[in-house]
Design brief:
By secondary structure, the protein is an alpha/beta fold. The protein is 41% helix and 23% strand. The structure holds zinc ion (ZN). Zinc ion binds next to loops.
């Protein structure tokens, strides 16, 4: 009988579920609003009933072996310790709650780690044993795969690529620090730089309607100031990535998220920084590539974790 897992990407805005086969194919999917403002109990109860619906669907196609969830925030041992994207979530034992409600094994992972693992299992980083995955969205997320495994750090805080400092006295970040990569290379950061450019009188974009999509369109239409916003983001990415490469020496850096659609606009300056700043061996041999799974990376990574957990727990005991 075909083995299936439910992969879940739990975001602050949307929750997406999919029925995934062991080779990473989505058989069925479902999306609905998180409505986090209704409180954690309402979110968990909706998540639980949507998952039950997906399990019932899965049983028509094969055997559902478990559930993998990528959730935002600090995740430790199946517990959401806290989450900036899910107001009111503190020490929520989500894994246990869902296991009790659904009677199937559940794996809970940080969302950025799930994305990195998805790209490593089925996407641009397939077959690699070490990589850094960076997601350029509203913020800048990061996940590390070292020796084929997710590196979570001592207490689940590893991979916060968005908060490495690339400009000592730079922009104030939501984390309280200054000059974090996120304040320059996220969608929010690029729009903020665009607004500063207008305020300085160096561009005349409509500040009421600034998004990375409109700016990308302007850049592609020949607007030099718009193009330089992406080049600037690429430069800061290159500075941040250079430090990471010297510390970790991964085989690849994989960059995804909405902003990564502007790859050709930021990659040349990113690459130039790496060439200028890194040891030659590192600059020449590290692959820097776009992510390939888009929005599905987190779901696929979470499902893969569910498959792996199931394989471990079904092995005969050695004692
Ligand atoms: Zn920060």
């Amino acid at each position: 009988m075909k083995k299936l897992a439910i992969g879940i990407d739990m975001g602050g805005t949307n929750i997406r579920l999919a029925l995934i086969s062991s080779d990473g194919l989505a058989i069925n999917s479902l999306r609905y609003k998180t409505s986090a403002q209704e409180g954690k109990d309402a979110v968990i109860s909706r998540l639980s009933s949507a998952t039950a619906e997906m399990i019932a669907e899965g049983r028509k196609h094969g055997m559902v072996i478990g559930i993998g969830i990528g959730a935002p925030g600090l995740i430790e041992n199946g517990v959401v310790r806290f989450s900036p994207n899910l107001p009111g979530w503190k020490e929520v034992p989500l894994q246990n709650l869902l296991e009790e409600a659904l009677s199937l094994p559940v794996v809970l992972e940080n969302d950025a780690n799930a994305v990195a693992y998805g790209e490593n299992s089925f996407g641009a980083g397939k077959g690699l044993s070490s990589l850094i995955c960076i997601t350029l969205g509203t913020g800048v997320g990061g996940g590390l795969i070292l020796d084929g495994k997710i590196w979570r750090g001592a207490f689940g805080m590893a991979g916060e690529v968005g908060h490495i400092v690339v400009e000592p006295d730079g922009n104030k970040c939501s984390c309280g620090n200054r000059g974090c990569l996120e304040t320059y290379a996220s969608a929010t950061g690029i729009v903020r730089t665009a607004r500063d450019t207008v305020n300085r009188g160096d561009a005349s974009w409509d500040t009421g309607n600034l998004t990375t999509e409109t700016l990308e369109g302007a850049a592609r239409g020949g607007d030099k100031a718009a193009a330089s916003l992406f080049a600037g983001a690429g430069r800061y990415l290159g500075i941040g990535i250079s430090s990471l490469l010297h510390i970790l020496n991964p085989e690849a850096v994989i960059i995804g998220g909405g902003v990564a659609r502007a790859w050709d606009l930021f990659y040349p300056s990113l690459s130039e920084e790496i060439k200028q700043r890194c040891f030659k061996e590192i600059a020449e041999r590290t692959k820097i590539m776009p992510a390939s799974l888009g929005d599905n990376a987190g779901i696929l990574g979470a499902a893969r974790l569910a498959f792996e957990q199931s394989a471990v727990s079904s092995q005969p005991s050695s004692v």
